[in-house]
Structures are given as C-alpha cells and as structure tokens.
C-alpha cells in the first residue's frame, strides 16, 4: 500500500486537528485501538467528511487531522452520540491531555514525485 498525504480539496474546506498524549496504559486492554477503529469507520458516514490522516510517536503523542467540507459536517461529527461516548471514555481512561483546533483552509497545495 502506497503512503501518500490526503489530496487538496476544492476550497474552502475545514480541518480539525486533534493532538493527544495518551497514558502509557492506553493500549493495555485493547479498548483504545478498538475505539479508534470505530471512530475511523463512523466518521466516514458523516455527510461532508473528506478524509483524515494520523501520525503518532512512540512516546504517545498522536495527531489526527480530519478534513470536512463545511462547519455543518464538523457539527454533525461533534454531535454523533457514539463519538461523544468515546470522547468521555477517552478523558476517563486513555488521555493525559489533548487539544483540538478547527480551521478554515483557504489555500492548499502539494508535491508528488513521479515514479
């Protein structure tokens, strides 16, 4: 499988950057990876969801960047009841800290080396 960044979308669009530091024991019982997979699957059903990217370090820092067509799509995701349930569980069990940044993308470009 080729690893590539998410392509640029028709402007403007929105991005949600979720940066977290997980507790060392977050992976111990397998509930965090299951919940992360559930969130990846559920967000794809949100009208206006465009894609997302994840990156993490061995020390527990994780960044997820989600791309959405508009603020209504972000609101729909934020109001998803299963998403809200997992957020509560994350605060109670998995995260030492997190931040969430929402931004309107007004310019986007990229580069790709031809094979």
UniProtKB/TrEMBL annotation:
First and last residue of the signal peptide: none
Classification via Gene3D superfamilies: 3.30.70.100
GO molecular function, one term: monooxygenase activity
Keywords, comma-separated and alphabetical: Monooxygenase, Oxidoreductase
InterPro entries hit by this protein: Dimeric_a/b-barrel (IPR011008), Jasmonate_Hydroxylase-like (IPR052936)
Keyword Oxidoreductase: yes
SUPFAM superfamilies: Dimeric alpha+beta barrel (SSF54909)
PANTHER family found in the cross-reference section: ABM DOMAIN-CONTAINING PROTEIN, BLL5343 PROTEIN
The protein's name in its UniProt record: Heme-degrading monooxygenase HmoA
């Amino acid at each position: 499988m080729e690893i590539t960044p998410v392509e640029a979308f028709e402007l403007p669009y929105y991005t949600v950057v979720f940066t977290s530091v997980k507790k060392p024991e977050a992976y111990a019982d397998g509930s965090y990876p299951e919940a992360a997979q559930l969130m990846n699957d559920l967000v794809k059903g949100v009208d206006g969801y465009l894609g997302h990217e994840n990156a993490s370090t061995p020390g527990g820092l994780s960044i997820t960047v989600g791309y959405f067509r508009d603020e209504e799509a972000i609101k729909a995701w934020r109001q998803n009841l299963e998403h809200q349930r997992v957020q509560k569980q994350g605060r109670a069990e998995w995260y030492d800290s997190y931040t969430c940044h929402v931004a309107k993308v007004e310019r986007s470009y990229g580069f790709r080396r031809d094979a």
